Amino acid sequence: MFWKRIAVAAVAATGLAAALVVSHQDTPAAAIEPVAAKVPAFDHIVLVMFENKDYKEINGSSKAPYFNKLASQGANYIAQFAGSTHGVDSNKCQDLGNKENIASQLAGIGKKFVGYAESMPSDGYTGCTKDKYARKHNSWVSFGNVPASANKRFSSFPTDFTKLPHVAFVTPDLCSDMHDCPVDTGDKWLKKNLDAYAQWAKTHNSLLIVNFDEDSGTSVNQIYTTFVGAHVKPGSYSESINHYSILRTMEAAFGLPGIANAANKSPITSVWQ
After folding, report:
1. Of 41, 50, 105, 205, whose CB count within 10 A is highest?
2. How far are the Cα atoms of 37, 79, 201, 224, 266 from residue 239, in angstroms, in the given order?
3. Residue 47 CA, distance from chain mean position
4. Predicted TM-score of the model (pTM)
5. In order of start, what are the domains of the chain with their CATH numbers?
C-alpha cells in the first residue's frame, strides 16, 4: 500500500510498529544492555527502503541470505523524511510544498541530503511513473524545498563513499525493492549494491540502515530493520520502534531537533557501543 509507504519514506509511521528481533546468535539477548547516552555523530548515513514484506519472510529465510548475514553484523530491529504523512493517502503524485523535512533540516546547518532512485529516467525527474520507477516511493520529490540536484538516479551513487552526502535515501525500483518481485531478488540487489558500503561504514564513522515500508498486510505489521556500521553493537534488541523513531535517530546524529511526529519520539540509543 502506498499510503503506508509514504509513511515510511516521509518518515511518517502510520501504525508501523517495530519490535526488535534476534539476529546475532553469538550475543544472548539477556546480555545486551542499553549503555549509550546519545546517538553518535556520523559522517554519512545511508537508508535503503524495501517494500511490503513481513518480518517472517526475511528473518532466517533461505531466500534472504544476505539480509540475514547483514543482520548478524549489526543491530537488528523488527520494525523517514518529514515526520508526517501530511494527508497523503493514495498513490497519486502530490506536491507538499515547503514543509519541513530532513533534507531542509540538513540544509539549514550546511549539510547535504541526496535521494538516489533506481530506474529513474533522469536526474531531477518529477514524473509519476516510468517502467519500473515509481515516484510514490521517493518522498523527497514531493517537497519544493528539496532542490532538483538532490534527486538523482541510483547510477549516480558514488563508489568513492567519501563523496556521499551526509544523509542519503536509496530507493530500489519496483522489482528490486520486492514490491513486484520475490524476496531473493531484493536480497541479491542489496548484496550487490550496498555490501561494499556496509563494510566500509564500519571503519569510516558511517551507518547503513535497511528498512521496510510495511509488512505483507498482517494486523501486526511487523517489519525488519537493521543498523550496520560504526559504533553499532551487534545483537538483537526488543525495544519497540517505528519510522518516526528512525527519523529522530538520524536527526539526533546531526544535532537536529525532531520534526512533526518525530519530535514525540526518543532517538534509538541502545544499539551503540
Report:
1. 50
2. 16, 10, 24, 13, 12
3. 4
4. 0.83
5. 2-88+96-264 (3.40.720)
